[in-house]
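Assemble and predict.
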Amino acid sequence: MSEKRKPYPFDLFEPKWQSHWAENKTYRTPGPGDEGFDATKPKYYILDMFPYPSGAGLHVGHPEGYTATDIVGRYKRMNGFNVLHPMGWDAFGLPAEQYAIKTGTHPRITTEANTNNFRRQLQELGFGYDWDREINTTDPKYVRWTQWIFLQLYNSYFCDEDQKAKPVSELEAKGWTQQQIDEVRLAFIHEAPVNWSPSMGTVLANEEVQEWKDKGETVVRRPLRQWMLRITKYAQRLIDELEPLDWPESIKALQRNWIGRSEGAEVIFDVEGHDITVFTTRPDTLFGATYMVLAPEHPLVPEITTTDQKEVVETYVAACASKSDMERGLDKEKTGVATGASAINPVNGEKIPVWIADYVMMGYGSGAIMAVPAHDSRDFEFAIEFGLPIKAVVFPDHKWLKENGGHLEVEVIEDGTNRELTWTFPELVVQAEREESFQKQASAFYQDQVSNFATAYPDHGTAINSGFLEGLKTKDAKKKIIHWLGENGKGEKKIQFKLRDWLFSRQRYWGEPFPLLWDKETGQHSGVPESELPLLQPEMEDFKPTGDPRGPLINCTDWINYSDKLQRETNTMPQWAGSCWYYLRYCDPNNTEHFISPDTESYWGNDEGFVDFYVGGKEHAVLHLLYSRFWHKVLNDLGHLKSKEPFKKYFAPGLIMGEMEFAIFETQSGEIVSYKDLEEQDSRTFVMKRTGEALIKKVVGPEEVEKKGENFVLISDPSIRVRSKAEKMSKSLGNVVNPDDVVERYGADSLRLYEMFMGPLDQDKPWAMKGVEGVHRFLAKVWRLAFSEDADGGWISSGKIVAGENADLAKTTHQTIKRVEEAINSLRFNTGISAMMECSNAYTSAGEIPRDLFLTFLKLLSPFAPHLAEEINAALGGTELVSEQTWPELDESLLVESEIQLIVQVNGKLRARIMVPADISKEDAEAQALADENVTTHTDGKTVRKVIVVPGKLVNIVAN
RNA sequence: GCCGGCGUGGCGGAAUUGGUAGACGCGCGCGAUUCAAAAUCGCGUUUCUUCGGAAGUAUGGGUUCGAUUCCCAUCGCCGGUACCA
């Protein structure tokens, strides 16, 4: 193959510099206690989410965030910071084990091969990582501390009074029994319905179910004894302490949403002699509770069910048990059966029927609700379905009534058929506007006539039909009823969270074994001595799921039998365990005494949040980022860490989508039409919007574009899309871009620069190979400023870099310093690259470039395209690496203009641009503007009413 | 449904205390160079236009001398989440 000549020899110098940096440990960052550590420098800890080293290798999505942090890291380094910028491997995980099951290759072997490939790929992109700090979650030296941290959790409980974790030894000292202590540990055994995957032979966290189902695995509900972590105790703190962090608001919202805090009340109902507690966010609607619903799994269901209903209830419960939460969610049709029991509404003594229905979940609140069909859409639907009474107790607010024109649509059910009625009550609306105390009339009006709304009215309003709450606004009614409940021992204020405890055990081989022992006689569990850590998996050849919910390790009899009396726990930890704390270990990766030493912790961490800047995908917004925060807080509570939060600042890069494809069409009649002129009928047929002429669609790849279709010709005009929507990159769509290919064709600098130039970092954006060529051309232009081609095709000095000065170029260069700095500081790298492009265009036009300015420019370029910057710098006689030089200082005086352009508007429309001295007075500016020819043509015959002068910017003349 | 985000040329996107809309790049057109092509360089490129201008940042209003930017409403797209009581 005749290799096309490269526009600049990146293929030669990029590997050269990579080796140079590696051999000289250019990016090594000494920490406290290390040789060469300079404690006087400020520090900056910038972190990428470490990858799972999959067999597929690096995806173009990886270098997006990694380049961003690399640029910021290099910039900080050049500004005198000790920059900690490490990389490592989140190397436990299911794919390696699934692969082992299939092929018999030990996961350790697969993992090592994959890690080596990832490391090579990252090094070929020129990232300035300190590879001496590389960590791997599967490394026994790392596993040791993951297990150690687990033991901290195991040996702690959450003190509600102080809202923090404390050692269980404090409880022992108080004389608590082992059993009592086990009930409060942060790591505890719990038997509950879990997501069991028969195809993988393991349980999954709620958060993981969808991901694996999408990958084709099966997941069912099944009760099992599992290790859980008591993250729910931290729910409030996880919300509160999120607030001051410098995270994108959207990510904070995602976490808050996930934790799902609701304020309300618990109300106790008497059901056939049993107290049943319900949680409600609307205790003010208690008078409107017309029935009660229990989750089918509610423990009291068998006890309260009447003999008449026993059979239907049992059938229904059994049917629900076979369905997963997911299936229940998908089934929107309301189902349920009556238990035959009734509950007594504590507020008015009314007897209401008790039903069971799968729209009530056992996992949230108490698994029981009071149903207020008039004001809750789900209860409403259920009541309609089963003909239960609906009683309105909240009168809609004024706004709602007004917006509905004084009409309130209601629906009455008679003989099982629905009939729509509309009642008007203009007099009520008028009254509502005039008087505060219209509620009485409303109440009187509704008492007899309104039994059913057309829909539930779930918003706030005024209490009606509500005894002592009558006439109160919802907010006040809530307060009053909560007070009443408390006084009467019928309930209290309650804050409820959606967050569930974290299911922490997995039935896998390739994970950290739990460092726990079980007493074979008593069944009591205990931790292994710390001195025995790390506790590694035994060597095994067969990892197949056995169907035994205790996991594959159960087959290793030698390993599980710790002693005559004690047996090992056979579960392993989920992949999250290692990633929960890895950011700490980078600070002190080889410490054998501590997971992180207090010295390194103090130096590299911040009190407000340990890591200065964390960058990684928002798909981890509610999993990894929440789990890490939880572990960090526990370690902080127990005195092992000073900071309360792991990540002070966090940023999530957008997704890189697949490339879009383009074509325009020529119809049989010879007309050229674009995709926009076409309407898609189905996946194969287009219709011309204008004429209705049908075309058969053919999705084309770039090479096919010029081939003829059946009914039309495709012409290569990339301006019109065929694959008009950006889609996620995926194997099945065949739109995956391999970074290795891009590096091969355009070089690492081009890939880095392109990913930063694509658009705002946090936005999803489609890949475009033409765009890579664009930045590649820019880099080639920079190269040709310094080098020319000789007759033999070799590169020689261009002679354009000269001694001397050039005021215009100095100004341009310093403007570029400013713009690049601003771009890096605000993470808007695309604008910084634009600035450098403009600067290099100015250099090209000038022909000759003063050496000092060009060297300055190289410094600006170096965080983005470090190889090219080093190569040119060295060629120009630079003895010091650009990476190790200091960032250029901005000379503001060069930016000052003596003459500026003023914009002159007449009635807000641009009419003239005039050059004036920069320090022109307002009066002079006004006079000059009014005198301008282009202005007078628009002001002639009009009276100038007003003139606005914005110094240095514009003059706006208002005339009519 | 609820929560969050986003709507600017043929395309990716600039314009962050309200002040020149379309920087930079892609694509496209024309020209230079070349036997020719590639590469490179130069010029042009929002739309309409009676060549004077006019319109224009999803749509409709509002505030302002002036709005892509602020406010209200509507429409559309994307992400998260969902019988969470």
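Residues 404-453, 668-672, 679-721 of chain A have pLDDT under 50 and may be disordered.
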